[in-house]
Design goal:
This protein is an alpha+beta fold and 313 residues long. It has 8 helices and 10 strands. The protein has a domain of 215 residues: Cyclic Phosphodiesterase, Chain: A (Alpha-Beta Complex). Strands 1, 3, 4, 9 and 10 form a 5-stranded antiparallel β-sheet that branches. Strands 2-7-6-5-8 form a 5-stranded antiparallel β-sheet, covered by helices on one side. It is found in: Nucleus. This is U6 snRNA phosphodiesterase.
Length: 313
């Protein structure tokens, strides 16, 4: 794990000493006053502005500290694993990660606040957008069901899924929110409020890039005797199943309340949600507490691969 560079204790002592010293009063001069103060503040703000963190930084702290060696619903808001944890096995998940911007986070927070009002006091809606400490949380689009790998298989699994995704010829792409829905996962006893995602205009089909990645992930998962994600049913195509979970509840909302919540997406104040772009440039493989980032091919590389296959080069 990469180390974070902290200042030395000597630097802290110097800083403390500086804070204890009374500031000297300066005589007002030609450059003093509100304008000079504003300029000074702007200069200080620019000087202390920090560069943005790299995307891989989030992978270092993707999990909280484990508080128990056995499943304890009391530590997880009453949630229970459908597949109990087995010591020596590694819980595994493949997914696309999305970090909403500040404005997007605020819009989702407002949306969930109105959803709580529509559901009433009998339904406890817990969100995935903000942590208990108020921190913004990343959201995700699943490309696998919850998997459980043996220690002897986890490295081989990561190697195979990495090679499979990188050889798919899928370049970075964009999806956008297409509407709200309620979803009950086969791996959980919870009801989820989700944002369906759809491919950008001009693709000609429903989520073709996500379908390509899902096929690769499912092929590798089933080769390790793990379940596949999303099976086609008589009334729903697999391509329409991709979503971002934004909240969950143990309770079953009644039909009227459920429909009122789904209708929030079409309100004028949330019209901009339909224009959001969720950039997909990699797939995350989380095995235990370790997250690996599998970058998708550059568009040029994907085009070269397609050309090679077409002309037999």
């Amino acid at each position: 794990m990469a180390l974070v560079d902290y200042s030395s204790s000597t630097a802290e002592s110097d800083a403390d000493e500086t804070r204890r010293r009374p500031a000297k009063r300066r005589k007002a001069g030609p450059g003093s006053g509100a304008a000079a103060s504003s300029t000074s503040c702007s200069s200080v703000a620019s000087a202390v502005a920090m560069p943005p963190l790299p995307a891989t930084f989030h992978d270092l702290y993707a999990s909280t500290v484990r508080q128990s060696v056995s499943d304890d619903p009391g530590l997880h808001q009453g949630r229970k694993r459908q597949t109990p944890h087995v010591p020596g096995n590694w819980p595994t998940h493949l997914y696309v990660e999305w970090h909403p911007s500040e404005a997007q986070h605020d819009a989702l927070d407002e949306l969930l606040g109105l959803a709580e009002v529509e559901l009433g006091d009998d339904i406890k809606l817990r969100n995935f957008v903000t942590s208990d400490l108020g921190a913004h949380l990343p959201l995700h689009i699943s490309l696998s069901r919850p998997l459980s790998l043996r220690t002897a298989n986890k490295d081989d699994f990561l190697d195979k899924v990495t090679k499979s995704i990188r050889s798919s010829g899928t370049g970075a792409f964009v999806v956008r929110p297409g509407g709200l829905a309620w979803y009950r996962s086969p791996d959980s006893d919870r009801m989820f409020l989700v944002l369906h995602v759809v491919a950008g205009a001009g693709t000609g089909s429903t989520n073709p890039q996500l379908m390509r990645l899902l096929t690769r992930c499912n092929t590798v998962s089933t080769s390790f005797n793990q379940p596949a994600l999303y099976q086609k049913t008589h009334n729903e195509a697999v391509g329409t199943a991709f979503h971002v979970s934004i909240a969950w509840t143990f309770e079953q909302p009644d039909e009227e309340a459920s429909l009122r919540v789904l209708g929030l997406f079409k309100r004028r104040q949330f019209k901009e949600l339909q224009t959001w772009k969720i950039n997909v440039s990699s797939v995350k493989a989380k095995i235990g507490n370790v997250v690996s980032d599998i970058a998708l091919a550059e568009r040029a590389q994907a085009a070269t691969l397609s050309s090679s296959l077409l002309f037999g080069r």
